[in-house]
Design a protein that fits this description.
This protein has 106 residues and is of the alpha+beta class. 38% of the residues lie in helices and 37% in strands. A four-stranded antiparallel β-sheet has the order 2-3-1-4. A hairpin with a 2-residue loop joins strand 2 and strand 3. Helix 1 packs antiparallel against helix 3.
Amino acid sequence: MSNGFGLVVRFELRDQEATAGFDDLVARTLPGIKEHEAGTLAYVVHSVPGEPNVRVFYELYADRAAFDAHERQPHTVHFLAEREQYLSTVQVIFLQAETGKGPVTA
């Protein structure tokens, strides 16, 4: 498999009000990702049944350089600064593609 690079991020939000604010921040950030990041292959935000104040992001990039470019984008820099006010915890798991089926292939 090629150099696909990804991560899973679990956000636990403080309360229902914080979750609504976080969801709005995400909604304002996504257009920049869609329009300006060709190397971002997937950026999917999930809710978790039974855990209304949790969001899980799955992010897949063409390679580490694409992820680094994502982190430098103005919309991402803004998101990273603003998200802190909504969070109680965040867990980041970095992934390196080894095998499978998807947009990153051998």
